[in-house]
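Practice problem: predict the structure.
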Amino acid sequence: MEQFTITAAEWVVNLLTVYAALGVLFAIAFVGTGIKKVDPVARDSGLGFRLIILPGVVALWPLLAVRWIRNTGAST
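Answer:
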């Protein structure tokens, strides 16, 4: 039973690592270009604002990806 617990913990850590890695990759693209499509107010935001929202984008990347995809067809 102890071996299963260690294996389960390793799976959780591995899944969180993959989630975070995908989040970082997504956040780089989103903060660079995608934020303009999702939030028109942030269109003229500076580097400081984009760095501040970066951790949140990494954490919430699936939600923001859906919003970005939905807003891609909208006019800018």
